[in-house]
C-alpha cells in the first residue's frame, strides 16, 4: 500500500451568514478552535482584513496548516486543512462547518507526498 | 459558464536536493520570488524550521496565499498556490520548480468558490 506524508482537505463553505465572514477575529477564533479540536500543536496564527471586505488567515500548526479566505458578499469561505500528523480531522471539520454556519458544504480530500515504495521508505 | 472566485494549485515537488529543503530562509526566498514573479501583492511571510528537520512557511498575498512544507529526508516539498486575482501563475510555478530543484513534479489545479449562476452574481 502506498504511503503518504500528509493529508489535505479542501473545504468549501457556502451559504454562510455574511456576519461571520467579515471580521478577522471571528475567523481566527473558529480556526484556532478547529485546530485545538483536532489535537494540533498551534505554532502561530495570522489573520488579515481586506478591503472592501473579506478575511485571509492562516494557522500554522506543527503538523502543517489551516487557512481560510472569506467572501462575505457571497457567503463563501474557502478553508484548507493540511495535516502531516495523526490528528482528529473530523472533529476540526465539524467546528469549521458549524463555526462559519455553512448551510452547504463540499469537501475534497487529497493525499500529499506519496512515498516511492521501491525505495523502502518507512 | 460557471464562474469561480479562486484557483488553487497543489504542487508536488519530488526529488529535490535535500539541502534546498532544510533552511526556512531558502524556502522563504523561493516563495517570495514566486509571488513576485506572479505579480502578487505580498502582505507578509512567516517561515518556521521544525525538529529534527523540515520547513513550514506561508506567504500571505492580497490575492490569497502560497504555502510550503518540506521533508528534506524524502527530497519532497508540498507547495500550494491559491489565488483569487489575475496573476501570472505559470511564472510563479516555474520559479517554485526551479528554486527547489525538483526533478519530478505533479500539479493539480482546482477552482474554488463556484458562484451559483442562477443568482446572477457577476
Order of helices and strands of chain A: EHEEEEHE
Q: Which strands sit side by side, in order, in the main sheet of chain A?
A: 2-3-4-5-1-6
Number of domains of chain A: 1
| Helix/strand/pairing category of chain A | alpha+beta
CATH topology of chain A: S-adenosylmethionine decarboxylase
Sheet with most strands of chain A = 6 strands, antiparallel
* Beta-strand share of residues of chain A: over 45%
Low-confidence stretches of chain A: none
Mean pLDDT score of chain A:
93
Name the CATH homologous superfamily of chain A: S-adenosylmethionine decarboxylase
Q: What is the count of helical runs of chain A?
A: 2
Helix % of chain A is 10-25%
Give the tally of β-strands of chain A: 6
Gyration radius of chain A, rounded: 15 Å
Quaternary assembly: homodimer
Largest interface: A-B, 32 and 32 residues
- The name of the CATH architecture of chain A is 4-Layer Sandwich
The gross shape of chain A turns out to be: globular
For the record, give the distance between the C-alpha atoms at the N and C termini of chain A, rounded to a whole number.
12 Å
- CATH hierarchy class name of chain A: Alpha Beta
Structure description:
The structure is a homodimer of 122-residue chains. The first copy, chain A, contains 2 helices and 6 strands. Chain A is of the alpha+beta class and 122 residues long. Chain A has one domain (4-103): S-adenosylmethionine decarboxylase. In chain A, helix 1 runs antiparallel to helix 2. The longest helix of chain A has 15 residues, at 24-38. The A-B interface holds A 5-6, 8, 10, 12, 43-44, 46, 48, 50, 56, 58, 60, 62, 64-65, 67, 69, 71, 74, 76, 78, 80, 82, 84, 108, 110, 112-115, 121 and B 5-6, 8, 10, 12, 43-44, 46, 48, 50, 56, 58, 60, 62, 64-65, 67, 69, 71, 74, 76, 78, 80, 82, 84, 108, 110, 112-115, 121.
Amino acid at each position: 500500500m502506498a504511503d503518504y506524508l500528509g493529508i489535505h482537505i479542501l473545504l468549501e463553505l457556502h451559504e454562510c451568514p455574511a456576519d461571520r465572514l467579515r471580521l478577522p477575529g471571528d475567523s481566527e477564533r473558529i480556526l484556532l478552535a478547529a485546530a485545538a479540536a483536532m489535537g494540533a500543536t498551534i505554532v502561530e496564527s495570522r489573520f488579515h482584513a481586506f478591503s472592501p471586505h473579506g478575511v485571509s488567515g492562516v494557522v500554522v500548526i506543527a503538523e502543517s496548516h489551516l487557512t481560510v479566505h472569506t467572501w462575505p458578499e457571497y457567503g463563501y469561505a474557502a478553508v484548507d486543512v493540511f495535516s502531516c500528523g495523526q490528528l482528529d480531522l473530523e472533529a476540526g471539520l465539524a467546528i469549521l462547518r458549524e463555526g462559519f454556519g455553512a448551510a452547504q458544504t463540499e469537501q475534497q480530500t487529497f493525499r500529499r507526498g506519496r512515498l516511492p515504495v521501491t525505495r523502502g521508505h518507512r
